[in-house]
Amino acid sequence: MSATWYECKVKYRKTHETGEKKVSTDTYLLDAVSYTEAEARINEEMTAYTNEDFKIMNIKVANFSEVHPFENSDRWFKSKVSLVAIDEESGKERKTNVYVLVQANDVKEAFENTTSAMQNTMGDYTIPSITESPILDVFPYFSGEEDNEVEKSEVSENLEPAELEN
Predict the structure, then answer these.
(1) Fewer beta carbons under 10 A from the terminal one: N or C of the chain?
(2) Which domain holds residue 87?
(3) Do 49 and 88 fall within a single domain?
(4) Per-residue pLDDT, 164
(5) pTM of the full predicted structure?
(6) pLDDT truncated to tens, each residue of the chain (166 aa)?
(7) Which of 42, 14, 12, 16 is nearest to 29 (CA)?
(8) Closest CA to 58 of 22, 8, 12
(9) Distance in angstroms (rounded) separating the CA atoms of residues 6 and 62
């Protein structure tokens, strides 16, 4: 079962740069296999992020087909990408829209990052719109197996065959 992206709106008291505490509702994106897992994960992430009480206001499935973080970027942009295909029967051009979330500092950079993310796409596409997203942060799913693979290989190198008793 593949993971799905969920947008989670969380309301909490946030300390701003001025030191002032204000109630804020922020949107976060995470991938999970169900609403239940999304709720558990956002609870875990927010508990690590703030000591303040928080309330999950909304969880909904996000319509992003791909999410692309880019280093040295501080905002998230939603890019509408129209994939262009030719219908073989009618010979007419057909467009299928997908939405890609890319990290960038401004719209121009978001366009460049979307183009970079779409490099491996087979066929033609256009980017009809890019809008800044309210998403503050993205929490991709890590199974923990990524670290275990290294540990397993390190451990197996140090193992010697045991003497078998007859």
Answers:
(1) C
(2) 63-141
(3) no
(4) 42
(5) 0.78
(6) 566 999 999 999 988 888 898 999 999 999 999 999 999 999 999 999 888 899 999 999 999 999 999 999 999 999 999 998 888 888 888 889 999 999 999 999 999 999 999 988 778 899 999 999 999 999 988 755 544 333 333 433 433 444 444 4
(7) 42
(8) 8
(9) 5
Q: Are 63 and 4 in contact (CB under 8 A)?
A: no
- CA of 60: how far to CAs of 4, 9, 28, 43, 160, in Å? 10, 9, 11, 15, 51
| DSSP structural state of residue 118 | T
* One domain for residues 43 and 102: no
From the number of C-beta atoms within 10 Å of its C-beta (0-12, 13-18, 19+), residue 7 rates as: buried
Q: How many domains does the chain have?
A: 2
Helix (H) or strand (E) holding 113, with range, is helix 107-117
Q: Is the dihedral of CA 14, 17, 19, 22 positive or negative?
A: negative
Residues 136 and 68 reside in one and the same domain: yes
Residues 132 and 98 in one domain: yes
